[in-house]
Design goal:
CATH superfamily: NCX, central ion-binding region
Order of helices and strands: HHHHEHHHHHHHHEH
CATH architecture: Up-down Bundle
Number of strands: 2
Radius of gyration: 21 Å
Largest sheet: 2 strands, antiparallel
Strand content: under 5%
Number of helices: 13
Structural class: mainly alpha
Shape: globular
CATH class: Mainly Alpha
Number of domains: 1
Distance between the termini: 42 Å
């Protein structure tokens, strides 16, 4: 599936660039032009993540999930910076709202959905405790440093960091994320490799052909309807991966430019429906994480929960570990203050999420119950974001 480039995936990047060139500098109304920009923006995001998946499949695990996480974070940062540069009442808190939303979506929505899908199909799912708990510990430290501490510091007014504090937070975030990447890809790479599922017991397993007989008869495990054939799909060629890398870069340029073009209309639309400003951050996080969520759920359906967690927690880590330093640098020329500290309601939701996720991953196995708990917490986050 990932070894060939389908037509729409090749056509979307140049078409998005054409739309960007045709609308750059124009004031968008509420008509056909705005709808065209919105469709091109969503399509460019989906195509970007697909091309990142092609490159990721070429390099293999765990580097593949790292590439996906970084690609999604680049899109997220581009959207945040473009919207913040447009100013507006919600510009100061946009980075905080988006990063917090990404944290909640990943740790509750994506993980919960993966656990639910995996448990419904395989009853009990397994993953490597060493890798998942290490990622969660790093994520908890990053979230506390970037989103909790600014609400309690006294060097500057409001939920903000002073310039030295913001610089320290940015450097510390890079150190934590860089160390995690080193551990994931070099030092303890085996902690993040998928757990091979045990052979199923029962008559079907006993009757399954092996060796040459399996080659002749066709192994049921490779049945496309079962969804596991992708696990053994041949990686794309170097030429296909290089083509996807080029199209990925084109998509990223298109996404950032289209976000800049559409930002005034987005702000006006949120104000028109009377929604809280935080909804903009939630919408950005949902948009950029939607394709990656689909990839994580597909892995869960194939009983590859470790891959799902690599995608989910890696995205959250990149979202905080790379977004905060980038926004800290961008704040030098961005208008207005940069509010990072969460309010009491958001702190409670984050604390509950950390506790629930810790209890979920500690045993190395999970069932349907853990998936439902995470999803209900995610629904509570969405509900309170719209009706604070």
């Amino acid at each position: 599936m990932l070894s060939t480039l389908r037509r729409w995936e090749v056509a979307v990047p140049p078409v998005a660039l054409v739309v960007l060139a045709a609308t750059w500098g124009r004031k968008l109304g509420a008509g056909v032009v705005l709808a065209l920009v919105a469709v091109a923006l969503v399509a460019a995001v989906v195509a970007a993540v697909h091309h990142a998946e092609v490159v990721a499949h070429r390099v293999g695990e765990p580097f593949g999930t790292l590439i996906l996480a970084i690609a999604v974070t680049v899109i997220e940062v581009g959207l945040i910076v473009m919207l913040m540069s447009a100013g507006g009442d919600g510009a100061a808190t946009l980075a905080r709202d988006t990063v917090f939303a990404a944290f909640m979506i990943v740790c509750n929505g994506v993980m919960g959905l993966c656990l639910l899908v995996g448990a419904l199909r395989h009853r009990v799912v397994s993953f490597r405790v060493e890798g998942v708990t290490g990622a969660l510990a790093t994520l908890s430290a990053l979230a506390t440093l970037a989103l909790i501490l600014p609400a309690f510091t006294t060097s500057s007014a409001g939920p903000t960091f002073s310039a030295p504090q913001l610089a320290f937070a940015g450097v510390a975030s890079l150190v934590l994320y860089g160390t995690f990447v080193f551990v994931q890809t070099v030092r303890h790479r085996d902690y993040f490799l998928p757990v091979e599922p045990a052979p199923a017991a029962g008559p079907r397993a006993a009757a399954r052909p092996t060796g040459a007989a399996a080659d002749r008869a066709g192994d049921p495990a490779d049945d496309p309807a079962d969804g596991r054939a992708d696990d053994h799909a041949a990686p794309p060629t170097a030429r296909a991966a290089a083509g996807s890398l080029g199209l990925l870069l084109v998509c990223l340029v298109a996404v950032v430019g289209l976000a800049k073009t559409a930002s005034p209309a987005i702000e006006s639309g949120v104000a028109a429906i009377g929604a809280p400003r935080a909804v903009v951050g939630v919408a950005i996080a949902l948009l950029v994480l939607l394709p990656e969520t689909a990839a994580a759920v597909r892995a869960a359906a194939r009983n590859r929960i470790q891959t799902s967690f690599n995608l989910a927690l890696g995205s959250a880590l990149a979202s905080i570990g790379l977004t905060i330093p980038t926004i800290a640098v961008a704040s030098v020329w961005l208008p207005g203050p940069l509010a990072l500290g969460l309010g009491p309601k958001e702190m409670v939701l984050m604390a509950i999420t950390v506790v629930i996720t810790t209890l979920t991953v500690a045993p190395g196995r999970a069932t349907l119950l853990q998936g439902v708990v995470h999803l209900v917490t995610f629904l509570a986050f969405l509900f309170l974001a719209v009706t604070p």
